Structures are given as C-alpha cells and as structure tokens.
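Rather than argue in generalities, we reproduce a single protein record, letters for residues, whole numbers for local backbone shapes, just as it appears below:
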Amino acid sequence: MTNRPNIHYTGAMNRQSKSVKAVKIACLLLVGCVFSALAENPLEKINRAHQAATLLSADFVQEKKTRFISQPLISSGHFAFAPKRGLLWEIQQPFAAKTLFADDQVFLFDAQKGWGKSDDSLIDKAFADTFKRIIAGDWQAMDAHFDIKTVADTDSHWEVQLTPKAAGIKSVLQRIVIQGAKTIAAVTVIDQRDNRTTISLSNWQKQQTPLDETQTAQFAHP
C-alpha cells in the first residue's frame, strides 16, 4: 500500500514556517530600528533640530574655576548665532562687554568707537569655532578635530565628550563635555591645567525666517 503525504499536515507546516519567517523578519527590522536610534549621536539630534535656523540665541551663565582663584568667576549674558554672519557674545553681568566672532576674526565693542578688531587670539577663535559647531550640531566638522564619545543618551539626559585630535589643540585643551536633554544645557571646557569653564544655557530661541534690519545690524563690523 502506497503512503500518501498528509496534505493538511504539510500545508499547516508551510503556513507555520511562513509565520515564523514573518516574525523573524519583523524582529530583525525592529532590532535594526532600535540600534539605529541608539547609534544616532546626540549632536545629530541637535543638527536636525537646528539645521533650518537662521538665528539661534540663548541666555548663558559662565563659571570659570581655576587653581589660582578660590572663588569661581561668574558672568552672565546672552548670545546670538547666525550661521551666515557670526557669533555675538554679550556679557551683561557683572559688567557689560560684547565680542563678535565673524569672518574668522574677533571684534570687540567699544561704547565710544564701536566695533574694533581685536588681536587674534587662537584660543578664543578656536573656542568660538568649536562653540558654533556645537550649537549647530555640526558633528561632521567636530569629528574631523575631536574624538566624539557618547557617555549617556536618554530622553531626559545626554552627555558627549570631545577629546582633541590635533597636537596643537591637545597642548592647551584636555576635553569638552556637552550635556543636554531636548537641547544643549551646558558646555564645559577643561584645559590641560584642569581649569574649567562651564557655560550653562537656557531660554533657547530659534528663528527660521530671514534676519530683519535690526538683527542684521548686530553682526555688522568693519
């Protein structure tokens, strides 16, 4: 007597096999999405949030701690960054001072004479360039100059450490620590002498429309 295959059994097995394959594929896709999200650098998130901005601004509190001064030096103010024009850094307390970083130069404001070119400071310019890249989330440019390490990355807190690659930067700078949540909350610069400058940021504003005449005038310089 010839054995005939159980058609119902075979069909059930085929359907089960296809179902298992479908589940595996769905799991692989889900895992891929999870790892893709985890692999995204926090700076990329900032880039996505700020990429269309014509003007970014925030209030800051800057705290400097050095080995030679027992009490930290604290100043506060406001900054404005227009990607096509420059970075305006305005200290309001404990004294008034304005510095403009534009066209790869440094300008200081004098109440009597207006803007004047400052003696080039490599440290100031390097910090300004780095700070602009940080708030813009320009991680590709950062990657060319720093080793980028994500220390923490959750919805409520993330932290990224930047360690300089170039010997010139290494000689004066130990690392930069960036912290935030939905946006950047603090940037800490640590030099080779362990002096620390922490800039806490709040009241972020993002503009996506062209600058008006008053805003454009803020970045005008000789």
